[in-house]
Amino acid sequence: MKITVLGCGGSSGVPLLGGPDGRGVWGACDPAEPRNRRTRSSIAVQAPDGTTLLVDAGPDLRAQLLASGIGRVDAVLLTHPHADHVLGMDELRIMNRIMGRALPLYATAETLGEVTRRFDYAFRGATPGFFRPALDAIPVRPGDTVEMAGFQVRLFRQDHKVMDTLGLRIGGFGYSTDVVEMPEAGFEALAGVRDWMVGCFQRPPHPVHAHVEKAVAWSRRIGAARTVLTHMGPDLDWDWMRENLPRGVEAGYDGMVLEVG
C-alpha cells in the first residue's frame, strides 16, 4: 500500500497570501526550503494495482494530483466539511470521465448534509460526458469499518473543538488530521499502528489543532514506529523540525510517499 501526501498545509497553506511583495507570508518557514511550501492537507491511498482512495478534496486538488502523477480516483472519503478539505470537489468531474462512472463519496451524515447543500449539483446523478461531478453519497459513522476502493477502513471520532472529524486506520496505517483532543476510542482504534500521520499546526498550543508537544505525546502513547506531521502552518519550519522533533517523529511534505506493509 502506498500513501502519497498530496498536501500537508493548514487551511491557508504555506505561504499565506499577502506579504510586502505579494509573494506570501512565510512566518518562521524558510522560503528557500521547498518542503516548506505546503498545499492544503489531503492524502491518496493506493493499492499495488493503482486503485486509489482519496482522503479529502481541498482547493489544491487538481495541482496535487498532477504533481503526484495520480490519474485515477476510485472513491473519496471526507474527514469533515471545512473548506480546505472539500473545495476541490469540482475537480472530480474529470475523474468521473476517466473512471466512466459516478464516484462513491463516504462521509458522516453531518458532513454529507453540508456538502450536498453546497455542491448539490454533484449529487444529481451523472450527465452524458460528465459535465458536472457525479458523486454517490454514502453515510458512515465513527466505529464503522467500511470497504472503500477495496480497502478495509476503520473510522473513529476525533475532537476538532468546532466539530467532530473522522480519523481512519487501514491495516498498520493511521491518519488523523484536524484534531485537538483524541477520544479514548481513537486511541483504541490506533493502538499498535505502525505508521501514523497526525495534524500538528504549530509549536505552541492552538484552540482547535494539536501542537508539537501534544502530537509527540500522542505518538508515544500509541507506540507508532513512525509518526509524520501534517496540516502544518507557517510556524513549523522544515529545518527546525528536523533538528527538534524526537526520533520516530518527522515532518511531512507535499509529494512525500510512504510505503506501508
TrEMBL record:
<protein>
    <submittedName>
        <fullName>MBL fold metallo-hydrolase</fullName>
    </submittedName>
</protein>
<dbReference type="InterPro" id="IPR036866">
    <property type="entry name" value="RibonucZ/Hydroxyglut_hydro"/>
</dbReference>
<dbReference type="InterPro" id="IPR001279">
    <property type="entry name" value="Metallo-B-lactamas"/>
</dbReference>
<feature type="domain" description="Metallo-beta-lactamase">
    <location>
        <begin position="39"/>
        <end position="231"/>
    </location>
</feature>
<dbReference type="Pfam" id="PF12706">
    <property type="entry name" value="Lactamase_B_2"/>
</dbReference>
